[in-house]
Model the fold of this input.
Amino acid sequence: MDETRRGLIVVSNRLPYALSRDEAGRLTLQPGAGGLVTALVPVLRNRGGTWIGWSGIESDDRQLQAEAARVLAGATRDAGYQLQPVPLSHAEVEQYYHGYSNETIWPLFHDLQSQCRFDPEYGRAYDAVNRRFAETIARHARVGDFIWVHDYQLMLVGHHLRELGVTAPVVYFHHIPFPSIDIFLKLPRRSYVIRALLGYDQLGFQTARDKRNFLQCVRTLVDGARVRSQGSLHLIRWEGREIRVGAFPIGIDFEEFAGQAAQEEVSRRAWNIHAGLPERQIILGVDRLDYTKGIPHRLEAVRTALKRHPELHRRLTFVQVVVPSRVDVPKYARLKEEIERLVGEINGEFTQGGWVPIHYVYRALPREELLAYYRTSEIALITPLQDGMNLVAKEYCACTLEDNSVLILSEFAGSAAQLHRGALLVNPYDVEEVADAIHRAYMMPSEERRARMRRMRRVIRQQHIFWWVDTFMQSAIAKDLSDFPVLEEYDFIPPERVHPEEQSSG
Done:
């Protein structure tokens, strides 16, 4: 380890930039998307730390991996932190990421076992790639660094770092739900996975329920582990080490979202959206294409609401934004087909002259357009079947500057634990309950809307992304972001060029 500097090291499956080739065949960079990037970029920006992750390039070609490293190095000065890629081959991406991470862990941890595929080759690839991430961290970590590993793709990294002799603080945050013991027991090599998680010094979960589920798995599967509570934390004593476990609900940069929503361009777009849908309330859904988001159930709820409450006809328009994801995977392609079939059926059944009940948008929206939809929609319908947190709910509330909107939220979203006093909580599997919540939201008096939204905005403003980081770090190392100050431009030293052979060896 190089001992000359101390800083933040963030580790995730993907870097916060996506690499692709332009028409001339050159590698180009685009900012990444997703909740993790949204949450952590403001934390790491200009602090001179390091973000370690896969570059998005699937190749064994050393020259290509070196080219990717050079492009990422060029982006480092603008980001204010180093970008350190972990190279992965096509086979590794298929087995570690598409396979174990997204066909085993993702559906199992979201309580959708019927979607799982348990392939031993997937598990071996997952272990090997987690080992490579650990080796990359070990090469770049310095004494005093704070190593923060994120999410279900990298559960074994802490274990491998201990095998490599890394003694720096290594902590982990689990962004998706953690399952109950009866579900977790279905995972092959379950004892190995739960013990590997105890390689971290601290584990954070989104909700108290997730934390309880994890602790129950430890009590059941780890012989000799002793669990006791200490305030809001739990401590696990195992093999001479003490591991802290807590619930730390992730936030957003509230002031940034609220400030951008107030900008003139966003206000103009919001006005244009509503001008195109006059004399009606807009109800908004925004989701990545994924079977955990409950989009077909939601569409059935909209159909039921229109059947049960004819007064909603011509007075309500549902805008469903679906961001494309994994469209080359058959089950996702089938999901897209099902969504489009339902949209067509419902519009065919209820459309009247000058009114189409569902507007379906299948693309990623530019940020200003997304904020405009947040700003102008009177109702948000966010009903995942299961979700670790769901930051869309918080973003929507942050952008509701007039406090006049209603949030309908799944009780199985992690954000429900914080927003329950303001949101209309629903069971996403109960389409009649969701339909009645749509009608209630439509009919809700403005005074009740404002009171509910103000409660939620107060929580989101107080428990923002920097509060989340400070709370987690204070628990782990008795430090916060102020101990990793923003650097002046002249203080930042970009990373040295990485030798191609070092890149390819991972």
Notes: The chain has two domains: 8-250+464-500, 254-462. The longest strand covers residues 50-58. Confidence is low (pLDDT under 50) at residues 1-5, 490-506.
